[in-house]
Specification:
Layout (H helix, E strand, L loop, with lengths): L1 E6 L10 H10 L2 E6 L7 H10 L3 E5 L14 H7 L5 E10 L7 H18 L3 E6 L2 H15 L4 E3 L6 H9 L3 E4 L9 H9 L5 E3 L21 H12 L3 H15 L8
Parallel strand pairs: 1-2, 2-3, 3-4, 4-5, 5-6, 6-7, 7-8
Helix pairs in contact: 3-4, 5-6, 8-9
């Protein structure tokens, strides 16, 4: 059993075959998946997908590249929407300096509002961090010192070892995507090997970043199996053990998510 902790089933890439995609995931051993919000104004669509499929859960939040599009979304809005029974996380929110769609200030403001929502609700914040390691670490430390700990995970990890260390020290989880499987990603595999086993998660970030077996194709939740295989090799356990480790971690991290038979 595996759980894809991060995919985007609301994206138009999947409109023509969402039923088949969910069925393929089930057949591959991916028992549950979390479809992650990138825009709060799309939450109606996201939660409708989660309501349609028992094994699909969701989050609510604004991606940092859309921070300028939803500047008026407040912490209270996130808290209220997260009360939906299938909503198990806040985000994704964070910092992305690779692109410049939103200013660093807009992104940081949004991130801090999402952190507050995670602290209030107890739901984990799904953090997107790209080319922003120092500022992300600084905000995580500052928020923890000023407001107290909050649950979070660093999703689709492709940052440096220092950010992974800070995340773990502050109680966070680290989630690995298909990037882990790429031949040139030895640095990411080294980081994965250093993360305590009780903090490891796997994801697809579908439709992006298909793992090496399907490199160049549209990604989908069933492909998380390949990432789990490489993670198992990386940490020196069997594929079955890696599946058990990451699945139990997912239920601990996303504590509101129920187990679907």
């Amino acid at each position: 059993m595996l759980i894809d902790t991060h995919c985007h089933l609301d994206f138009p890439d999947f409109d023509a075959e969402r039923d088949e995609l969910v069925s393929r995931a089930r057949a591959a051993g991916v028992a549950q998946m979390i479809t992650i919000s990138t825009l709060v104004h799309r939450f109606e669509r996201i939660k409708a997908i989660a309501e349609t499929y028992p094994q699909v859960f969701c989050s609510v939040g604004t991606h940092p590249n859309h921070a300028h599009e939803e500047p008026d979304i407040q912490t209270d809005d996130l808290v209220a929407l997260s009360e939906h029974p299938k909503c198990v996380a806040i985000g994704e929110a964070g910092l992305d300096y690779f692109y410049d769609y939103a200013t660093p200030e807009q992104q940081a403001t949004g991130l801090r509002r999402h952190i507050a929502a995670a602290r209030i609700t107890g739901l984990p914040l799904v953090i997107h961090s790209r080319a922003a390691d120092d500022d992300m670490a600084a905000i995580l430390k500052d928020e923890t010192e000023r407001g107290g700990a909050f649950p979070f995970l660093l999703h689709c990890f492709s940052s440096g070892a220092d950010l992974a260390r800070v995340g773990v020290e502050l109680g966070g989880y680290v989630s690995f995507s298909g990037i882990l499987t790429f031949p040139k990603s030895q640095d990411i595999r080294d980081i994965a090997a250093s993360v305590p086993r009780d903090r490891l998660l796997v994801e697809t970030d579908a439709p992006y970043l298909a793992p090496k077996t399907w490199r160049g194709k549209r990604n989908e939740p069933s492909y998380v199996v390949n990432t789990a295989e490489v993670l198992a090799q990386t940490i020196g356990v069997s594929v079955e053990a890696a599946a058990e480790i990451t699945t139990e971690n997912a239920f601990r991290c996303f504590s509101k998510m129920t187990r679907v038979a």
